[in-house]
Amino acid sequence: MRKLALSPLLLALAAPVAAEPGLPDEASVAGALDAHPSVLAARERVGAARAGADARAVGPHELTFTGSYTRRNIDLEGDFDEFDAQLTRAFRLPGKARLDRAIGTHQVDAAENMAEDARHQAALILARHWWDWLEASAAARVDERAVANYRSALNAVRRREELGDASLLEVDQAEAALGSARVLAEQSAGEAQVARSRLQTHFPSLAIPVEAPEVPAPDAEPDSLDRYRDLVIANSHEIAAAEAQARAMGSYAERTRMDRIADPSFGVRLFSERSGAERGAGLVFSIPLGGRHRGALADQAAAEAGAASADAALARFTVLETAETDLAEARLRLSSWQRAREALDAQMSALLRQRRGHELGEIDLADLLLAERMTHESFRTEAVARAAAQRAVTQLRIDSHELWLAD
């Protein structure tokens, strides 16, 4: 009997490309991240924090001018023009200006770190959509090649049927296999297009090629990933922002406590009475007398400072969890991909034996088609596992700031 023409899918799917295999150009990524709305908003908040710091450094007190004009009438004496003018300004008590400057500095520090963390989160979103596209496209390529293989097989079976070397049942079996492969190929191609559309929508300025790059074989060893795990914690802007915010709240609490003694106001006063018959100048002084309200505000600020310190500790726990999870995920996905490659090699070996048996007439077409389908599934599983491994390594590198976020 003639050999069924079902050629294997090409192993070239695993070929590495470019200096950063499988990833978009770094300059294009930088521009896409800078243009992301979340990054733009965070940078505007940095500007707001700097303006707020300048305002705190200058202080809240300004010159206040008050004045009055009166026309008085006195019986038997006549009408008199009288006026009063006063210029006053409050002054911060010693230590308050220092704390105001400290609050502003810490708030700017927090805003800058939050802006970097916003860029970090945008990079994770880009990587997720990018690998969604590459994974779906890799599966679509496998399915497309499977359709081509089944189409060739169907043509071969039809020729054999015309020569009386195959039955109509075998033709039906080959047509059914081709139909199933076409359905899967259309679904995977549609999923790849959806993934590309999502990537383009979130990052319109990113240079996206028409065809998705092939997913390269991961080259990271599981034991070499520990360095990235340590860098996730060391380079975390989330921790830095939370700690800066805690310092700002601590300074604010101390500032509010000092504000229980209000700032005094000093000024000068000029007046003229009885149309200038009486004139004078003098100094004025005032100070609010604080009470329970100021004490309650001080207690509130102290509690908020304690909460900010707890939030900073929580941020450290969260980042530590992220680091450990990223490392475990990367190791798991790399191991899964290696097992998938081993399974694919074994399945290819089994397929060659099935084909040989079919040539010798020992295995019928149904069994061979089943073996071909299992081989197709093995190629698909390997492609998806390869993309998942690269996705996990990419996330670990982004979280460690070794990819796209060097600062």
From TrEMBL:
Regions annotated as coiled coil: 320-354
InterPro entries found in the cross-reference section: MdtP/NodT-like (IPR010131), OMP_efflux (IPR003423)
UniProt entry tagged with the keyword Coiled coil: yes
Pfam families (alphabetical): OEP
Sorted UniProt keywords: Coiled coil, Signal
Organism superkingdom: Bacteria
N-terminal signal peptide: 1-19
One GO molecular-function entry: efflux transmembrane transporter activity
Alphabetical list of PANTHER family matching this protein: BLR4935 PROTEIN, OUTER MEMBRANE CATION EFFLUX PROTEIN
Family listed: Belongs to the outer membrane factor (OMF) (TC 1.B.17) family.
Protein name: Transporter
High-level lineage: Bacteria, Pseudomonadati, Pseudomonadota, Alphaproteobacteria, Sphingomonadales
